[in-house]
Amino acid sequence: MFHKDLELSLWRWTFFILFNLKRGMILTNRVRNATQFFTLTNSAIFFKLFLKKNQGSEKKTKLKGLI
Question: What is the pTM of this model?
Fold first, then answer.
């Protein structure tokens, strides 16, 4: 009787650990993908702002050249 209970508990623990490891891996992959997407969007927004700033400065210099 004791051995059966012990075996069942061991199987439960192994299943529990494996299941949590797999779930953890899936979660880390999701987080990694989310962070990559976030950094990509941030860099794209930053690049757009940077371009806008440069365009503005070019216009100012052109105006200064005209005056």
Answer: 0.37
